[in-house]
Specification:
single chain; 429 residues; alpha/beta; Membrane-bound Lytic Murein Transglycosylase D, Chain A; TIM Barrel; 3 domains; eight-stranded parallel beta barrel; five-stranded antiparallel sheet; 14 helices
Length: 429
């Protein structure tokens, strides 16, 4: 696989000729049938099986194999080299590309149930790339109950791809995470037991594989109470062979104050639950100033802290499948940015003749454009380069995997890069 950044004069035909890949394959893997023309700065995934390399003075087959992380015998076999010691400067040799050479990874995807037709379409599009799928969400009620979720289509479609469904419970109420609601639950062991019983009943009835707890905006003083609640949940579910995971707000150190971060005790979660999903996104958010949604430098700050207190194999790193389009100038309290899929971002760039730029510090693409009303915009999003940087970060820190928010956002290059780099773990047989 090659990631090619479009330059002036590039066409699908010229790229087909250059890389020896069919026009149709390039169009298919990048969803180019939805875009009127290539956009300068656009990152394209080009499937490939090998590359050419000109031998340099001092090269040996062994040094070349180390450079490209490909076994010596694979290079020798592809090039018909019987004596590995006889290569010479200027010689052109073919380097086989190793797909899946980053090993195994677990992948979760959150999904918001909508219509059965749409839910099935989403699962069919990405099901083979998922270990888990997490319908969002069963909302906890003040009496320990759960609001129903129309998740049948998702669960049924997931079975054919051996995807393990995770039941997600939240303290979501009235359009946001509700502090009073979650504090009420954490303040009563009887309410907690009622909630646990209701969770087990739903999991049994619907065939869920495990539980994901996404309690946010907990009062910081209830940090210990939340840890105790997790211990009760695990004590009840582990004997039933249900793994338990939690969603954690991103933080680069152990903040003990603040509505979003204070009650999330990374070390305790790492000791109590089976794995955690760290929501490493929303630095750039719809109500805030324009910025990358998941800047790699800040994501790494969070992961570096997390692995210092949680076993890396218990950590799934959050990856956004979206960007935001901000009208300019940005003013606090002004119009919020709208969420845009990466494919939608490319379509906008093509529509308005924008040039896509790439910020190498935060590892994210962005562009400016002016709409029909004369309003200036800036749009930050994700592309093949930015997700590859995140995958490499997960590899570098030895993480369990990645977790997407939110399935249904069109981003074909993401799945191509993921599939090229990793074998996807399937925990359901």
């Amino acid at each position: 696989m090659v990631i090619h950044v479009v330059r002036p004069g590039d066409s699908v035909y010229s790229l087909s000729t250059r890389y020896g890949v069919s026009v149709q394959r390039i169009i298919q893997i990048n969803g180019l049938n939805e875009i009127p023309y290539l956009v300068v700065g656009q990152a394209l995934v080009i499937p490939s099986t090998e590359r050419a390399y000109r031998v340099q003075p001092g090269d040996t087959l062994w040094s070349i194999s180390r450079r490209f992380n490909v076994p010596v015998d694979r290079i020798a076999q592809l090039n018909g080299i019987t004596n590995p010691n006889i290569i010479y400067p200027g010689m052109i040799i073919r380097i086989p590309e190793l797909a899946k050479n980053y090993g195994f990874i677990e992948v979760n995807g959150y999904i918001e149930p909508s219509t059965a037709e749409n839910d099935i379409r989403i699962v069919n599009e990405v099901g083979r790339f998922l270990t888990y799928i997490s319908p969002f969400s069963y909302q906890v009620t003040a009496d320990g109950g759960l609001t129903p979720v129309n998740d049948e289509a998702i669960l049924n479609a997931s079975r054919q791809y051996r995807i393990a469904p995770l039941m997600v419970i939240t303290n979501f109420r009235g359009g946001n995470f509700d502090t009073e609601l979650v504090d009420t639950i954490l303040g009563s062991t009887s309410l907690q037991q009622t909630l646990i019983d209701n969770v087990i009943n739903v999991m049994r009835e619907k065939g869920y594989y495990g539980l994901n707890i996404d309690f946010e905006r907990i009062s910081p003083q209830n940090r210990g109470a939340y840890n105790d609640f997790l211990r009760r949940v695990v004590a009840a579910l582990r004997p039933l062979n249900y793994p338990v995971s939690t969603a954690l707000a991103p933080k680069p150190e152990d903040y003990e104050a603040g509505a979003w971060h204070g009650a999330h005790d990374y070390r305790a979660h790492g000791e109590i639950v089976d794995f955690v999903i760290i929501m490493t996104y929303e630095w750039g958010w719809s109500g805030g100033p324009p910025y990358a949604v998941a800047p790699i430098d800040l994501v790494e700050d969070v992961i570096r802290y997390a692995v210092s207190v949680i076993p890396p194999r218990k950590i799934m790193m959050g990856v956004p499948l979206y960007g935001y389009d901000w009208p300019l100038p940005y003013m606090p309290g002004g119009p919020w940015a709208r969420r845009v899929s990466p494919q939608g971002a490319i379509q906008l760039a093509a529509r308005y003749g924008a040039v896509i730029r790439y910020d190498t510090r935060v590892q994210a693409p962005f562009f400016n454009y002016r709409d029909e009303r004369g309003v200036e915009h800036v749009l930050w999003f994700e592309d093949a380069r930015s997700v590859q940087a995140k995958f490499l970060l997960a590899v570098r820190y030895g993480l369990r995997g990645v977790s997407y928010w939110l399935l249904g956002q069109q981003f074909p290059q993401n799945w191509a890069v993921l599939d090229n780099m990793f074998n996807i773990v399937k925990v359901v047989q």
